[in-house]
Amino acid sequence: MQRFVADRMLGKLAKWLRVLGCDVVYLKGAAEEEILEKLQEGRTLLTRNRRARSWQGKGRVFVVKDNDPKIQLREVVKGLGLRDLDRAIFSRCLSCNHSLDKVGREEVRQEVPEYIYQTQKEFHRCNNCGRIYWPGSHAVRMRQQLREILKD
């Protein structure tokens, strides 16, 4: 999966790409040095800044045109030719971008609401921030949204 760095104007796009399992560093207020460092790591810069094409010589840059995050996602997926997107879906933390590890139900019993514990069989934990995820109704809705966004 390709690695990205998203500038301050693309926070919602960064989240949608993380849903797909992409490694996306979101820089809310980055200095040019920080962007350059991420480009040197081999990440593709995602930006709305049309003047960012000047970064092309320093790394790969993709200028996103639309304001709507869902249309932005379609732009990036099609424009960069991303494939096999179902393979890594829901594998990264939506908050901090680290990978998720599968954990047993008993490990999270005290950390999730009782109803969630009783109704869910599968749990994942971020190996960085500790946030817990489960495939509830929100995951079903997100998958449906992704099918609609990426239907072509």
Sum up the structure in keywords.
alpha/beta; globular; single chain; 2 domains; 152 residues
Short description:
With about 150 residues, the protein is of the alpha/beta class. Helices cover about 35% and strands about 15% of the residues. The protein folds into two domains: about 5-90, Rossmann fold; about 100-150, no CATH class.
3D structure, described in words:
- This protein is α/β, with parallel strands linked by helices and 152 residues long.
- It folds into two domains: 3-88, Rossmann fold, CATH 3.40.50; 100-149, no CATH class.
- The protein is 34% helix and 16% strand.
- The protein has a four-stranded parallel beta sheet with strand order 2-1-3-4, sandwiched between helices. Strands 5-6-7 form a three-stranded antiparallel beta sheet.
- Strand 6 (123-126) and strand 7 (132-133) form a beta hairpin.
- The longest helix is centred in the last third of the chain and has 13 residues, at 137-149.
- The mean pLDDT is 91.
- The chain-level structural class is alpha/beta
Helix count equals 6
State the shape. globular
User: What is the CATH topology descriptor of the largest domain?
Assistant: Rossmann fold
Strand arrangement, largest sheet?
A: 2-1-3-4
CATH class of the largest domain: Alpha Beta
What is the CA–CA distance across the termini? Answer: 20 Å
| Shape-level CATH architecture of the largest domain | 3-Layer(aba) Sandwich
- Beta-strand content: 15-25%
Unreliable runs, pLDDT <50, ≥5 residues? Answer: none
